[in-house]
Each structure stands twice: as structure tokens, then as C-alpha cells.
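[step 3/7] fold_predict: job queued, chain A
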Amino acid sequence: MAINKDKEQLNLSNCNNALELSRVKKQAKLKEVDGKAINRSGKDLLFDNLISLEELAVIFGLAPQTIRNWVALRKIPSVRIGRKRFFQQRSLQEWLNQKEESQWQ
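[step 4/7] structure written:
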């Protein structure tokens, strides 16, 4: 029983690390204009904290359909933009923290 809790704790920790790595990678992206790399504008930075459904599936190590099922069941916070679903890093972090706290109570 304690081994399962330790394993779940490790999985949550790995997800938190993966979310942080995703955020850092997105911030490090540069925009090319006429072959020259320039920093992204403030408008582009607005979407830096969004993760696509496919990216989240890779981060969690799950099938994209599993994430879609969670969205349909309202188990995970998401944002719909057009026909695509995105996830805010801040909301995911709060969701993970809530999951972590409920396991230990």
C-alpha cells in the first residue's frame, strides 16, 4: 500500500517536472524573420502557458483519447479555442496539487 502511494507521488512529481520543462522550452522558442532569430512579441507570450492535448498526453504518458475522456467527464481543467483543447499550465499545476493533497487525506 505504501509502495503504491510512493509510486503515485513519484508520478505526480514527474508530471510537475514535465510541465516545467514544457514551459521552459516554449519560452526558449525564437521567431525567425528574414532568417534572423528574434525574441517573440508580447502577443505571442500570451499563449506560452498553453499546452495542447497531444503535448499533455505525451507529458503524462497517456493516450490522447484518455485526456479527451477526462475532458468530457470534466476531470481535468481545459480551455477550448476553436476546435482544439488546450490546458493552462497554472490550472494543471493546481489540479495536480489538489490530486496530491486528496491522496494524503
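[step 5/7] annotate
The mean pLDDT is 76.
The chain is about 60% helix and 15% strand.
exit 0
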